[in-house]
Amino acid sequence: MISRRRFVGSLAAIGAGQLLPFGAAWPQSGGLAPDSAGMAGRIIDVHHHLMPPKYLEVAREAILKVSAIPQVVDWTIARSLDDMDKNGVRTAIVSISTPGIMFGGTEASRKLARECNEYAARMVSDHPERFGFFAAVPAPDTDGSLKEIEYALDTLHADGIGFLSNYDGKYLGDAEFAPIFDELQRRKTVAYTHPTFLSCCLNVVPGVHVSTEEFGFDTTRAISGLLYSGTLSRCPDVKFIFSHGGGTLPFLAGRIGAASVRAGSLIPHGAEYEFKKLHFDTASVTNAPAMAAVLKLVPASQVMFGTDYPWRPTEPSLRELRNLGLSEADLKAIERESALKLFPRLSV
Question: What sign does the dihedral 64-113-249-199 (CA atoms) show?
Answer without folding.
Answer: positive
